[in-house]
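Section 3.1: Structural characterization of target chains.
Under the original work plan, the team committed to producing a structural model for every single-chain target entering the pipeline before any wet-lab resources were allocated. The record below documents one such target. The sequence was received from the expression subgroup and is listed exactly as submitted; it comprises 309 residues.
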Amino acid sequence: MTNTAKPNPRVLCIGIPVRDLTFRIEAVPGRGYKVPASAYQEICGGNALNAGIGIARLGGTATMCGPMGDATEIAGRFIFDKLAEEGIGTSGLIHMPGLVTPISAVLVDPTGERTIVTFRDPKLWDVNLPAADELLADCDAIMIESRCAGFATPLCAEARKRGIPVVVDIDSAMSLNQGLLTASSHLIFSAEALHATAGIEDDEAALKKVAALTHAFVAVTRGPKGTLWLDDKQQFQETPAYPVHVVDTLGAGDIFHGGFAVAFSEGQDIPSALRFASAAAALKCTRPGGAFACPSRAEVEAFLAEKAK
């Protein structure tokens, strides 16, 4: 795939912000057990918001778009403050009267792995987004959570008509008839979501099945096993993960998607964009704090330069 260089690309991040309550624990408790936490932190998250943090720190400009809870919520004000600190635009966020912003309890064990319980009010999906002309003005790319397909697929289809890349973070099962699969340019699955969507446990067979339904680039992230993807000739390629000492995996996949969106929108080819995304995600995993532990652009470039020696 060819691309045109765009310094400081402007990326519209479509998603539903989440208030994350994170607890560090020795082990995930069994049913009916109580365990103490060694550390606690309140942050904001959600796939697109996390990706937006990555975009802002890695060389792009991010604007959030999607539903939130009622404007009177304290949690909502906290999220807006955090977004402002990161320089992320909020013009596309819409308060939904009487609803609550999603909230997650995140348990992080000593290996850095996280266990998450989330509440999202189903009425959030009744949101009506601003007009496409408003959202797509000066937009170089879209980064969207797959769970937003119900209210954002028409916007993504319009973006594609205008030649704007649409990168989808797919971390849960999708219907093979879902319009977002064909209204996007880049589909990047987690392994679990790919298997559930295709109904096939084998990565290669599952990717092939999805690829037969769309003209979009398709890939699957597999944690320490790296990223498997199909090139323009429908041949399998792999981008290795970078081995690091893992402290916290929360938000790593989202930083990967944000890093990929920035790199591809800048004009990097697919292999380079995937290496950049992998490096950003790897460095994030070495630090606690969810997506707020995302590295800077300079740190990622230094890391890649070191690995290239």
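The mean pLDDT is 94.
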